[in-house]
Each structure stands twice: as structure tokens, then as C-alpha cells.
Amino acid sequence: PLMRLLSALLLWLALAPAALAQDTGRFVEHQAVPSTNVAPPHVVVWLPPGYDQGNRRYPVVYMNDGQNLFFPERSSYKKVWAADKSALRLIAARKVAPFIIVGVDHPGKDRFRQYFPAKVPQGALRQGIEGFAGPLTGDAYLGFLADELKPFIDRTYRTRPEPKYTAIAGSSMGGLISLYALAERPDAFGKAAAVSTHSPLIGPENIAKAPGLADTIKGSWRTYLYDRLGAPKGRKLWMDHGTATLDQHYAPYQQVIDAEVKRLGWRPGRDFETRVYQGAEHEENAWAARLDDIFGWLLSDWR
Question: What is the CA angle 277-281-286, rounded to 5?
Fold first, then answer.
């Protein structure tokens, strides 16, 4: 009996690593997804456990700054959101249905322009921003996401393509473009997480040099959200920021956004969640630490 028990234990130990590896989902890389809107980006898809067994269809979260989501060696900062790990925890706890993550790489030096919500600033403010940054290409990037990448993902994988089952998430400028996607393309995206959203639009040091510029930016947000976001109509929006490093400058602008979103009929806790993380910095480890909160709230109706 002892030998049989020992043999069984050795067999279990031999099989356990393979079983565990299989249970963490798997990654698929697409080196350059074709596009007429942007330079074809590298895209990494994470498929959840069980994807290869059966015919189930899955919701999808599209995430910006794909370099910083999964693999420290690909990250500019050697630290990541560990988005797959957060998904695994929430799926295992049955807080959300299994879902696919699509990480889209940023374009390097053109990141600011590509993630900029082009319609938010108007008139002289937009001209000033384009004067130092160059043409703002956020609309072209949304065209890629909604009209090129999403159809490609829906053709290639077993997705649930409806907006309710399609989310977009990102941080900083990636948070800006996620909010923008929810407002501009509700036909594609029904949920957005705008994390540490760079709501001042430009560097705080630039705003400090120009009296009245902060009020102009706040006014731009009020006008844009009133004109373009509208009532929730089944959509969900998460926004947050920390209180340290770059995030310490965000509160006055986020408060304006919060007030306008609520005025448009988004109900706190149901359609809209806004949180402040005391002491949290503007960096990947801080975002990883609250990703369970973000996914857990935003995706809670994926069951």
C-alpha cells in the first residue's frame, strides 16, 4: 500500500505542473494587426481557462498599453498590471464570467497623440495642444479598435460581440482614450475603465504657467461630456485616481467629470463608479493592486 501511495503521489507531482499551466489560460500573439487607421500594432490575446474545451462564447476586455499588461520583460518599467492574474482570481471566485483580454501595444513616441481624446478640447485649446504635440489621432485609433481590431477578434475567437460584453480599459492617457471610446463608439464598447485618467489633458506644469487654463480644460470636459456621453443606456463606467506622484493633480478635474456624468443620469454604484485610492502612485504596481476592484465592479454583470 505504501508503494502504491508513493507511486500515486509521484504521478500527481509529475502531472500537477501541466495541469496548473493549462489552468491559467493561454496567450496568442498577433505581431501586426492590419490597419488603414494606425501603424499596425502588436496585439496579445489572453484566452481564459477552458477556452479550448467546448463551444462557449466569451466577453472581451480590450486594454491599452499592451506592453505593460502581462510580461515584465516587455514592459518599459519592468512591472505590469498582471491582468491575467486578476482575471483568474475573479473567475475562480465566480465574481465574473470567464472573459478574453486583448492587449494592444501603444505606438511609442506617438502614444500621447494616439491616446488623446481629440474632440474634448476645442478652438484655441486644441490648436495649442496640436501646436506642441502634432496632429491628434485618437479618432483614428478608435477607428482601428472598433472597425478593424474588434471585427478581427470576433472572427478569430469565440466572442460575445455585443457592446454589453465588450469593455475597454487603460490608465493615464490610456484611461482618457477608454472614456472617449465609451462616449464616441457605444456601438462597439458598452463598458470602460478609465484608471488614473489623465484628466488635465496636458502636463500640470504647463497648466501652472497659464492663468485660466485649468478652468478652460474643466469647461472643455463639461461641454464634451454633455454633447457626446449622454445617458448610460446600459453602459458602465469606472474612473479612479490615486493621490501621489502625477495622480495628485487629478482631483479637481475628476470632480468636474464626476459631477457632469452624474448630471447626465449615470447612477453611482450602478452605472458609474468613481474612486480615490489614498497614497496610490501613477504606476503599474498601483494599478495592479486595484485591478480586482476594477474588473470586479465593471464586469459584475458578466455571468
Answer: 75
CA-to-CA distance for 35 and 48, rounded, in angstroms?
Answer: 26
The answer to whether 103 and 83 are in contact (CB under 8 A) is yes
Q: Which residues on neighbouring strands pair with residue 43, listed in sequence order?
A: 30, 104
Q: pTM for the full model?
A: 0.92
d(CA 63, CA 289): 16
The burial class, CB within 10 Å (0-12 / 13-18 / 19+), for 208 is: exposed
Q: Which of 276, 243, 245 minimizes the C-alpha distance to 258? A: 276
Please give the average pLDDT of every successive group of 10 residues along the chain, which has 303 residues.
65 57 86 97 98 96 98 94 98 97 97 98 95 96 98 98 98 98 98 98 94 96 98 98 98 98 98 98 98 98 91
Query: What pLDDT sits at residue 20?
Result: 47
Torsion angles phi and psi, residue 277, rounded to 5: -105, 105
What does the alpha-carbon distance between residue 23 and residue 87 come to, in Å, rounded to a whole number?
12
Residue 70, judged by CB atoms within 10 A of its CB (0-12, 13-18, 19+), counts as: buried
Stated as kind and residue range, the H or E segment containing 99 is none
